């Protein structure tokens, strides 16, 4: 059965990737410029990740960046993709996100992940004496829901601001574990297929088969995150993609780097094993001109029946990244059979 692609929404995930020769300051300004750009193009939401101790990723404080992006835009939904909940207490998250939702009503999303977003040593430095972490993830989500509820007004511990606010919560995952949790809680599910593609289809199947309707969501809702690098030609897009491939190779080899400039060929940069590992991680990457993107995205939508595609474009040149999202928007108008601006979801 072919899904109704006319209702698929499209969004952006930003890691605040620091390009070589750049600074976090310039990176954040570029993130805001990108958000303003995609808002004009009619994208649905703009999410920011949480990573720590990574020289090439500046998004260690997503709630601060969310406020910066929301303050510089007017209609775009802004959220976390995600806040790594084991790194924080639910009350602090509720207060911080509640503050944002009070400043920018109806525009703030809360995506929650269970991974540390870093190495174990750094995770210990973040969490201090807090134990449990990943094991407490389901209970922490429910505690967050309690803090946001109006019914919590009689509790001795309250989230002010936060209490009584409608903040959509999304469960993030890169394996099947969180699929079961999102289904049991009746929450929307966002899968990190941009770097962990192996279990995407199994996770979506588990989520949909086990979904229980809740006060938050009546039917399953799936967000799939994918890499997108669009250019005028397939050859130009392949050239730009070498920055992403080098960046992911640095993750595979444990030698972190900032986002490097593109190269003419990867042949002299990686070996067969590194190439295989990176290409497996980037299996759901859409690289090419508009015709290639249109065909590949339609096939992906048909395969996954996703409700929303969230695109991440780690491109060295800021101008090329802006243009990539413009070309993607133009492509999506053909894939979805209607202007992207009409797909904005609440």
From TrEMBL:
Identify the InterPro entries for this entry: Bact_Lucif_Oxidored (IPR050766), CmoO-like (IPR019949), Luciferase-like_dom (IPR011251), Luciferase-like_sf (IPR036661)
Q: Which domain of life is it from?
A: Bacteria
Molecular function (Gene Ontology), one example: oxidoreductase activity, acting on paired donors, with incorporation or reduction of molecular oxygen
Instruction: List residues of the Luciferase-like domain.
Output: 10-248
For this record, the Gene Ontology CC terms, alphabetical, are: cytosol
A Pfam family annotated for this UniProt entry? Bac_luciferase
As for family, the record states: To bacterial alkanal monooxygenase alpha and beta chains.
Q: What is this protein called?
A: Luciferase-like monooxygenase
The source organism is: Hymenobacter telluris
């Amino acid at each position: 059965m072919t899904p109704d692609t006319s209702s698929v929404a499209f969004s952006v995930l930003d890691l605040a990737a620091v390009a070589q020769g750049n600074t976090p300051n310039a990176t954040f300004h570029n993130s805001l410029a990108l958000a303003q750009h995609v808002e004009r193009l009619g994208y649905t939401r703009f999410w920011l990740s949480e990573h720590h101790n990574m020289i090439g990723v500046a998004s260690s404080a997503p709630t601060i960046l969310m406020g910066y992006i929301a303050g510089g835009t007017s209609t775009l939904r802004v959220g976390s993709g995600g806040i790594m909940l084991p790194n924080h207490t639910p009350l602090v998250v509720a207060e911080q996100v509640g503050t944002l939702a009070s400043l920018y009503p109806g525009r703030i999303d809360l995506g929650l992940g269970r991974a540390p977003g870093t190495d174990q040593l750094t995770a210990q430095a973040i969490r201090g004496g807090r134990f449990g972490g990943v094991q407490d993830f389901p209970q922490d989500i429910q505690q967050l829901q309690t803090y946001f509820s109006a019914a919590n007004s009689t509790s001795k511990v309250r989230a002010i601001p936060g209490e009584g606010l409608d903040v959509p919560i999304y469960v993030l995952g890169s394996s099947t574990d969180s699929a079961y949790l999102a289904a049991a809680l009746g929450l929307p599910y966002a899968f990190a297929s941009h770097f962990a593609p192996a279990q995407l289809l199994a996770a979506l199947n588990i989520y949909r088969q086990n979904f229980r309707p809740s006060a938050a969501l009546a039917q399953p809702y799936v967000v799939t995150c994918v890499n997108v690098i669009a250019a005028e030609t397939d050859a130009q897009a392949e050239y730009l993609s070498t920055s992403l491939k080098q960046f992911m190779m640095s993750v595979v080899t444990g030698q972190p780097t900032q986002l490097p400039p593109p190269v003419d060929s990867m042949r002299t940069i990686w070996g067969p094993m590194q190439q295989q590992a990176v290409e497996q991680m980037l299996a759901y990457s859409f690289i090419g001109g508009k015709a290639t993107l249109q065909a590949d995205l339609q096939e992906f939508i048909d395969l996954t029946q996703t409700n929303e595609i969230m695109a991440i474009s780690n491109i060295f040149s800021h101008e090329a990244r802006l243009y990539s999202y413009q070309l993607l928007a133009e492509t999506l108008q053909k894939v979805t059979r209607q202007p992207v601006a009409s797909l904005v979801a609440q």
